[in-house]
Design brief:
Layout: E1 2-6, H1 11-22, E2 26-30, H2 45-53, E3 56-61, H3 76-97, E4 101-110, H4 123-139, E5 148-153, H5 158-163, H6 174-186, E6 193-195
Parallel strand pairs: 1-2, 1-3, 3-4, 4-5, 5-6
Bound molecules: NADP nicotinamide-adenine-dinucleotide phosphate.
NADP nicotinamide-adenine-dinucleotide phosphate (NAP) binds next to helix 1 and helix 3.
Keywords: Oxidoreductase
GO molecular function, one term: oxidoreductase activity
Family: Belongs to the short-chain dehydrogenases/reductases (SDR) family.
Length: 204
């Protein structure tokens, strides 16, 4: 399959791209610094990106920022970033990618378990993740010719937890997390959330 991996230089995206390549898929690595480049916070860059890439079998997004800030401290700018980057950026990636998504193709976007397990300072992240899940469930009903859309909700990834000074041991590493993206691409699931094995809401 020819697969766009958005965020292919990031903690999760890098592991996803590597796993897809190991499975024999062709990976088009995409980010603000790739060639061609795409900035999902700038909607005009997305159709231009797909024009250069052409038809694909899968669009996998592991990118997008949302504010990790306590509600009383949130600025208007941080709220807007959460909306334009992780929420609308990924929705626009699916929307503008659809004309280039082959029949039976799949779009995979990234939410996060904070949609299910709220924590302090995550009101924007939880809102965006839940919004992306709602989008996924309804957007699936509008797709034709066997096309699918799925959302992966990763838990904390061990590498990220370590960077944030948290205990990484309860969490899967990026390589294990990438398996959920492979399952999303290779399964026939549509309009549903996908979890890293062992890290579904009832498990954690
Ligand atoms: N890591 C975790 O523990 C965790 C847990 C749950 C959910 N998530 C979610 O998973 C996604 C990826 O997280 P991560 O930790 O792997 O991120 P990361 O390490 O910060 O990497 C982000 C990737 O996305 C690209 N990117 C960032 N902004 C972009 C934009 N506006 N347009 C296009 N590309 C952009 C970056 O490349 P450039 O800088 O070159 O553009 C990079 O390749 C995020 O949505 C995050 O909320 C992460």
């Amino acid at each position: 399959m020819k697969i766009v991996v958005l965020g292919a230089t990031g903690t999760i995206g890098k592991a996803v791209a590597q796993l897809f390549r190991e499975k024999g898929h062709e990976v088009i690595a995409a980010s603000r610094s790739s060639t061609p480049a795409v900035d999902i916070a700038n909607p005009a860059s997305i159709p231009a990106f797909f024009e250069q890439v052409g038809e694909v079998d899968a669009i996998v997004s592991a990118a997008g920022s949302a504010a990790f800030v306590a509600l009383p401290d949130l600025t208007e700018e941080q709220i807007q970033l959460s909306l334009t980057s992780k929420l609308m950026g990924q929705i626009n990636m699916v929307r503008h990618g659809l004309p280039k998504l082959r029949p039976k193709g799949v779009a995979v976007i990234t939410g996060g378990f904070l949609a299910y397990a709220p924590a302090p300072k995550t009101s924007m992240i939880a809102m965006v993740n839940a919004g992306l899940e709602g989008f996924t469930k309804a957007a699936a009903l509008d797709l034709t010719d066997g096309r699918r859309v799925v959302i992966v909700h990763p838990p904390w990834v061990a590498e990220t937890a370590e960077q944030l000074g948290m205990d990484p041991t309860p969490w899967p590493n990026a390589a294990k997390t990438a398996e959920a993206y492979l399952a999303a691409v290779e399964s026939s699931q549509n309009g549903v959330p996908v979890f890293v094995e062992g890290y579904a809401p009832g498990d954690i």
